[in-house]
Amino acid sequence: MVFSDSAFFFDHTITKKLIKFYKKNKPLKCELSSYGDFLQPLGLSASPSYIVDKVTSETLASMRSALYRDLHGTNLSILVLKNSNFHHLGTMDEYIDSLCGKNKFGEAFPLSRSSFISYSVPKIAPLYIEGTIVNSIIHPLSVVPESSILEYCDINVAINVGRNCIISNIQIDGFAIQRLPFGIPDNTLVHTAILKDGFVTIAFNIRENIKKEHKQKHALETMFFGKKMKVFLMHDDLVFDADCDPVSLWDAKLFPVCSSAEESLKKTLEFILCVNECSSSDLNYTLHRGKVKWISMRDILMQKDTEAMINYQKQLYEKIKHQKEYRS
User: Fold this and answer.
1) GDP-fucose pyrophosphorylase domain location, by residue (predicted)?
2) Are strands 166-168 and 149-151 parallel, antiparallel or unpaired?
3) How far, in Å, are 30, 46, 196, 205, 285 from residue 202 at the CA level?
4) What secondary structure does DSSP assign to 37-48, as a single string?
């Protein structure tokens, strides 16, 4: 069994062209993909029409044009492997469909809906947990629909999760009878990351393109949970770095750094609730509050503590294992 996306082979003449392309265009200012950018100019039926197809920035269109000029006319041969299937889990929708839906991935890899989980309160039947739960502790009175995923979570209060959600690495302490006072909306990604100086919880609508760019002067046109930022923010001077142009949701400093994972989760969910209710005065005050540090997804990639994240998941595994052994 081989788990692979694709393998690409080319000779030294193509290598020289790619090196020439890089030297001419460095430093690269946008992400280029094999299928969307490098393979499009190849073969007998190549057409430049793809250059402006689904582009998120002028920079990407420019890079595609340059690649097309350098690679157009190059022969393309494809080796098709027999008796094979291609399963792509590269997007959030694909991840949900593959783990929760009834598709070819599920047929090829029959997965349990509950993979190594423990319930925070014993002897209570989990009547409304229908989603896919992976390596997690969850309160049995939680509501998790069939189309949602929880992974590496330690949840000790009852929560309501919307449809088509991915909930990852969140931690909530509490008592058996407690319930989180606000639910997680449909189509939401929630993930808590451990940083060098604290914790941050990010949340995005999985239907939105978080890398769609806008010029700095139109920064508040950026969409967040179905609304333009100008609807719920009065100013953008603290949301985007001054030297960041163009900007995208990826660059938006919308998430507070907190001293605990639970605090970061609650603050981010409160923020999402405010966005959905469009309480502009409350949000404007929150984002300009004194000593709180706000960061973006771009910042998180630079500041995350990967070792601490791995240790948390190892400790959670041992905690689940201990609970299972104690209750058996």
Assistant:
1) 2-259
2) parallel
3) 23, 40, 16, 10, 19
4) IISTT-STT--G
DSSP string across 287-319: HT-TT--EE-HHHHHHHB-HHHHHHHHHHHHHH
Query: How far apart, in Å, are the Cα atoms of 178 and each of 158, 173, 182, 318?
Result: 6, 10, 12, 25
d(CA 261, CA 188): 18
Cα(188)–Cα(229) distance, integer angstroms: 17
| Mean per-residue pLDDT pooled into runs of 10, the chain (328 residues) | 65 92 90 88 90 84 93 86 76 90 76 85 90 95 95 95 97 83 92 96 94 87 88 74 88 94 94 77 58 91 95 96 86
What's the angle, vertex CA 218, arms to CA 216 and CA 223, rounded to 5? Answer: 110
Residue showing tokens 């970061």: 264
Number of neighbours of residue 82 by Cβ within 10 angstroms: 4
Among the residues of 55-176, which ranges form H helices? Answer: 58-71, 92-100, 104-108
| Pair of tokens at residue 211 | 């890398």
Phi, psi at 308, each rounded to 5°: -65, -35
Instruction: Say whether pTM exceeds 0.85.
Output: no
Question: What whole-number distance in Å separates Cα of residue 37 and Cα of residue 55?
Answer: 11
Token representation of residue 222: 């950026």
Number of other residues whose CB lies within 10 A of the CB of residue 47:
10
CA distance 196 to 305: 5
Dist CA 142 CA 126 (whole Å): 8
